[in-house]
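Working notes for the structural subgroup meeting. M.R. asked for a predicted model of this chain before we commit to crystallization trials. I am recording the input and output together here so anyone reviewing the notebook later can reproduce the run.

Input as submitted:
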Amino acid sequence: MQNNYSLLVVEDEPDLCEILQFNLEKEGYRVDVVNSAEEALRKNLSRYHLLLLDIMMGQMSGLQLAQILKSRNDTKHIPIIFLTARVTEKDMLSGFDVGADDYIVKPFSVKVVAARVKAVLNRSVVLQDENLISFEALKIDLVGKKVTIDGQEIVLTKTEFELLALFLQFPTKVFSRETILEKVWADDVFVTDRTVDVHITRLRKKIVPYGKNIVTRSGYGYCFLE
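Returned structure, recorded in token form:
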């Protein structure tokens, strides 16, 4: 089983990291592990769909890490599940106060963790509805013809908007240049393959940091990857 979700486990017990990684990967997730909050902050955290954080770690706790993540525009939207041995009501409230979406007390069943991860993702990750397409902080309003990143409107041309909407409506699907010409330029016979390349280059520059998600598949075309 495979899905499009990437998870990061931040836990200072290597054995527990290994158990979580193995079992969550069996559920189809892509899973990375680190053993400290400091190590987590050195990663590109915006690429993850959910973080599992141990609270009691070395110098920086999971609570402190969560506070940092929720203060950053590129990570504030990412759901967080705390994994901890701290079981008092005060401890749990502290976790929720810094923005946690769930709280799992050790020792736990890996099946329970998998179920809670699925539940949090189902209610936290907006993939697509009738009029809105969303990937992380990038949102496309198909009715209002508006694109925003972190709430800031990005000015796109009509062609750039339609290119981006095409990619996000069908994430991971590879579109050949010929297909893109048919769908975006329709009956304009004067448009060439090179025109597609130029417009995608411009679009990538306008939607930083998500321009890198529009990937060139050499010999095939383009797709939007998480």
